[in-house]
Amino acid sequence: MLEAMKQGQANAIITQTISEIERYAITHFQKEEFFFQRFNFQGSAEHIKEHQDFREKVSSFKAELRTGEVTLTIELLYFLKDWIDHHILDIDKQYSECFRQNGLK
């Protein structure tokens, strides 16, 4: 995205990135939430709330894209970096032991 932005091609890559993020959210979150319920994961409500916040933010990005928001590329980059740093590397670890105890690797 950063390279595309430097070359003035940010809109094309942003549209593709947002579509990929939406597909990721649908499949990945459904799987996680299925196992939260199946294994009675105690932190599921808070975790599902983070998933919902993610979906809402992606919807917001789509709306900004339609209006031609200039700062969208940088905002999206920061959002994805924060999602990786905070959610994937920290929050997702909270259920990993529960999943392991129930036979998922």
UniProtKB/TrEMBL annotation:
GO molecular function, one term: metal ion binding
Keywords on record: Iron, Metal-binding, Oxygen transport, Transport
KW Metal-binding (keyword) present: yes
Residue ranges annotated for the Hemerythrin-like domain, each copy included: 9-95
Record-linked InterPro entries: Haemerythrin_Fe_BS, Hemerythrin, Hemerythrin-like, Hemerythrin-like_sf, Hemerythrin_metal-bd
Alphabetical list of Gene3D superfamilies matching this protein: Hemerythrin-like
Family named by the database record: Belongs to the hemerythrin family.
Protein name: Methyl-accepting chemotaxis protein
